[in-house]
Write a structure and sequence with these properties.
- The complex is a heterodimer of chains A (377) and B (533).
- Chain A is built from 11 helices and 10 strands.
- By secondary structure, chain A is an alpha+beta fold.
- In chain A, strands 3-2-1-5-8 form a 5-stranded mixed sheet. A 5-stranded mixed sheet of chain A has the order 4-10-9-6-7.
- Chain B contains 18 helices and no strands.
- In chain B, helix 9 (268-282) runs parallel beside helix 12 (332-346).
- Classes of the chains: A alpha+beta (377), B mainly alpha (533).
- Chains A and B meet through helix 1, helix 2, helix 3, strand 7 and strand 9 of A and helix 4, helix 10, helix 11, helix 12 and helix 13 of B.
């Protein structure tokens, strides 16, 4: 019976080992850490495998000795107990040998850690990633380009049955675009709670903490799409704030940057126009569902005790919209309500306020123009 | 009293010894008897195990397949939070206190715990503490949903109103733990039978003595952390709010200064239990008793110096990360010594495999697996990739379920014949072991894989690449949960009757409780100190 136990255990171990070895052959079937596409992620992978094999070796010795005595030193086989119970020599040996093994681990680990933390030197591009419940804002520090990246609608639509949706929960509306072959320095901070920005293939996981700035770096060697997720519990939709990095050639990256700048200019121009209520409500619904529905509910019902309802809200239904505009633009200190001036442009804020006042069971009947938002900033 | 040796005196004394407990419910409310209080603790722990376990079933049900089918994300977060809190503070810690109550006086030849009235109080705080904690689930806004580690500012600015009840409950649990710890220390240091020197104490007593000091050192730190949360929430302080000059990372430093010793609070008594069971069934004295004592003390001291290894991704300075990495992997040396000592105790023994031994062997193998993943996690640069993934979930469930919980179950099977005078049903015990052990590995082993492959912890839904292993894991989870309901049946069956246990219970058993007390022991045992060789 004990033998069965051991053979089953060794099967599990061996199966696990074989599965790990075959990882590179079957990239889809993931059992092991990804080797990734940056020098750091590959160093981390080697270090991981080194420590893993050391553990396997120690396991073979310890479990082997245990199995040997379980098989051979059992009473049913007539084994008679010896009476030794102390040996200083043995104790010293099995204290010193593990110490030497640990030193063997600590040397490469120290080297890798120093590389991992070397974000400040020779960075080509600096990107700031700000965690916001439950999306990321990216800012290209030297380029005046900034945008919000949140879970793609295609994932939101299939949440009750995602079968067949290949990148379910790992796709975003606006991916982070980065050039290959450049050292990118990331800066991390947060607008609300602690998040963590994690893309396994880049070997980067760093907390984004409100009021503090952390950094990390990556040098992506191969073009491709690399996916990750928020790794620190950050509230209700922690599981729904993915990260997508689109690594492209430098030329494509430059082209993308130009496009982003042109889009920003167009958005600024649109803010100066007079908008119709119909257009604002239509646009506002999209903005609401992407930014507000997570807390205030898709129908405006909120979550009693945690997040206030939109339907029938005193602030929303006040004929003077200034309090409503203020809370959306500047947020409410001490609560989960964020300042959306950092996240949305004037048109989107005007649209979502107009939508909230004239939908979700409310009918104030007024129209909030983007110019009013511009003044409120 | 203790010197009374005449035959008549002895008889009169026995009369006194055998006066039983009060009848009815009031026996349990007013009891100051270490055996009764031990029983109360163990039952509370079992109820909490089933309560925390049923929340684990909700978690595994939602994670059975990708997509959201059963619960909302907000409720899911409440489940993970409450599961963690209830299992740590409600299931594991009270179980060890229950075992300490039952066993320490009998192991050191004392008539009872040193402070019996405080003992009653430290137990009876707990049902209220957990009642308050459990009631938050029904409050507006729901129970705490910020994880059992309750990182600020998610647990301060962004937390539901019920958080204040959580804070109060944590204070109560802390008070209970500190009182229990004081009682253990006072008992062990003052009430040992003549001749029971410190270095003759059973290892369970030693590990509990060390654990009690850890409790007294760190529970006030936890109380400090929740009090700072409270003042941040309501009284305008900014301990953890950068906008007011505070620091959210300071919360993590304070929490883990409590939290890391806490994990040793949950495993040191387990080491003591395994060190009692293995020699009994190997019929050979424990190898390296004194090195076991020193290893336990080293682990306890080191446990205060490694807390920030939970924080390698928070942006600590490199020098800090290096120090915490070195200190952390160093803990594997005394822990390794323990495992080597147990294996050497078995070496050239004359082993049999009754149920307690099976659980103890399961502990050694699977706790060591959890130790290996712990060593991997301690290596700072790679930890940045393991951190907050299912690899961590797999790690701490291997050390807490197949570690701490397995040792508690082993202790139950090992000592229950002594406590009740009834042997448990050997066949059912073995079924319980194999059922649990297969299920628990189906449950937690695949979590290593999904964690390495990139699945974060504390998410209610996941991408499709993790689907197969999560389904396997859930099946293991349901099977493991059911096995513990089966355990409840075994426990009740054993209490109600069974083959009569001998006084020695096990052929190879040693220690005062087996050598000097009948099975079951009288309500008041060791009114006269037993002789200690």
């Amino acid at each position: 019976m004990i033998f069965n136990k051991l053979s089953r255990r060794s099967f599990v171990v061996v199966a696990g080992l074989l599965a790990m070895l075959s990882t590179s052959a079957r990239a889809e079937y993931k059992l092991n850490m990804t080797e990734g596409v940056t020098p750091i992620s590959q160093q981390l992978f080697s270090l991981h495998m080194l420590v893993f094999w050391i553990c396997v070796a120690i396991g073979v010795v310890v479990f082997g000795a245990m199995a040997w005595s379980i098989i051979h030193h059992r009473k049913s086989k007539g084994a008679v107990a010896a009476n030794f119970h102390e040996s200083t020599t043995v104790e010293i040996v099995w204290t010193v040998i593990p110490l030497l093994i640990l030193i063997g681990i600590a040397i490469p680990a120290t080297a890798t850690l120093l590389d991992l933390e070397d974000a400040k030197t020779n960075a080509d591009i600096t990107v700031q990633a700000t965690g916001i419940q439950w999306k990321w804002r990216y800012r290209y520090v030297d380029e005046d380009v900034s945008f919000i990246s949140s879970l793609a609608q295609s994932s939101r639509d299939v949440i009750s049955d995602p079968t067949g949706n290949e990148n379910y929960l790992l796709e975003v509306d606006n991916p982070l675009v980065l050039p290959v072959g450049k050292k990118i320095r990331f800066l991390f901070n947060s607008d609300d709670v602690i998040h963590a920005w994690w893309v396994p293939a880049l070997g980067v996981k760093q907390d984004s903490i409100p009021g503090f700035i952390n950094d990390s770096w990556a040098l992506i060697e191969e073009p491709g799409v690399y996916r990750g997720q928020c790794a620190e519990l950050c509230g209700k939709d922690h599981g729904f704030m993915p990260i997508v990095v689109n690594a492209v050639s430098e030329a494509e990256y430059e082209q993308w940057l130009e496009g982003m700048k042109a889009e920003a200019a167009a958005a600024a121009a649109a803010a100066d126009e007079e908008w119709s209520m119909q257009d604002l409500v239509a646009r506002g619904e999209t903005v609401y569902q992407a930014n507000c529905a997570a807390c205030h509910g898709p129908t405006g019902a909120g979550i009693p005790g945690a997040f206030p309802a939109m339907t029938g809200s005193a602030i929303v239904n006040n004929s003077d919209p200034s309090a409503h505009i203020d809370i959306v633009v500047n947020g409410k200190a001490g609560t989960a309500m964020a300042a959306y001036k950092n996240q949305l442009n004037d048109v989107d804020i005007a649209a979502v306020i107009t939508y909230e006042r004239n939908s979700l069971g409310n009918s104030v009947g007024d129209t909030i123009q983007p110019s009013a938002i511009k003044n409120a900033r | 009293m203790y010197n009374e040796t005449t035959h008549d005196g002895q008889a009169a004394h026995d009369e006194h010894d055998h006066h039983g407990p009060a009848k009815g419910l009031m026996r349990w409310v007013t009891t100051t008897n270490h055996k009764d209080i031990g029983t109360l603790y163990l039952w509370l722990s079992f109820i909490m195990l089933l309560y925390g376990g049923s929340m684990a079933m909700v978690i595994r049900l939602e994670l059975f397949q990708p997509g959201l089918q059963w619960v909302e994300p907000h409720f899911f977060n409440q489940m993970t939070t409450m599961h963690g809190l209830v299992m740590v503070f409600g299931a594991i810690m009270p179980a060890f206190v229950g075992l300490a109550n039952w066993l320490i006086p009998m192991m050191i030849g004392a008539p009872d715990m040193a402070l019996p009235r405080m003992n009653n109080w430290s137990f009876w705080i707990l049902p209220f503490a957990f009642g308050i904690l459990a009631s938050t689930t029904f409050m507006e806004g729901g129970a705490p949903a910020f994880g059992w580690t309750f990182y600020a500012p998610l647990s301060t600015t962004f937390a539901p109103d019920s958080t204040d009840f959580f804070i109060f409950a944590v204070h109560l649990m802390g008070i209970s733990s500190v009182m229990g710890a004081i009682n253990v220390i006072a008992t062990i240091l003052n009430m040992r039978a003549p001749g029971m020197t410190l270095m003759k104490m059973p290892l369970f007593v030693w590990t509990w003595l060390i654990t009690a000091y850890l409790l007294i050192a760190v529970m006030p730190v936890l109380a400090g952390a929740v009090t700072m949360m409270l003042t941040d929430r309501h009284f305008g302080t900014s301990f953890f709010d950068a906008a007011g000059g505070g620091d959210p990372v300071m919360f993590q430093h304070i929490f883990w200064f409590f939290g890391h010793p806490e994990v040793y609070i949950m495993i040191l008594p387990a080491f003591g239990i395994i060190s009692a069971i293995v020699p009994t069934f190997a019929r050979k004295p424990l190898f390296g008793y004194s090195s076991m004592v020193y290893a336990s003390a080293s682990i306890a001291i080191l446990s205060f110096m490694v807390w920030a290894h939970h924080m390698f991704t928070t942006g600590m300075p490199v020098a800090g990360e290096l120090y915490f990495m070195y200190a952390t992997i160093l803990i594997s040396v005394p822990t390794g010594v323990k495992v080597f000592n147990w294996v050497t105790t078995m070496w050239k023994g004359s082993m049999t495999f009754e149920t307690p031994m099976l659980w103890a062997l399961g502990f050694i193998v699977m706790f060591t697996i959890g130790g290996f993943s712990g060593l991997m996690l301690g290596v700072a640069p790679v930890d940045t990739q393991y951190h907050d993934t299912y690899f961590v979930v797999a790690h701490f469930h291997y050390v807490l379920v197949t570690g701490a919980l397995y040792s508690i179950i082993a202790a139950f099977y090992y000592w229950v014949p002594k406590w009740t005078g009834h042997m448990y049903d050997e066949k059912l015990g073995k079924i319980h072991f194999w059922w649990s052990t297969i299920a628990v590995n189906v449950l937690f082993f695949p979590q290593h894989f999904v964690g390495l492959a990139g699945m974060p912890r504390r998410i209610p839904d996941y991408s499709l690449q993790f689907a197969e292993f999560n389904m396997i894991s859930s099946i293991g989870g349901f099977a493991f949960g059911l096995a513990q309901v089966f355990f409840l049946y075994i426990v009740i069956k054993t209490i109600r009757g069974g083959e009569k246990a001998t006084d020695r219970v096990w052929e190879g058993a040693t220690g005062l409780e087996f050598e000097h007390l009948p099975s079951p022991p009288p309500y008041h045992s060791f009114n006269e100190a037993p002789p200690v060789k």
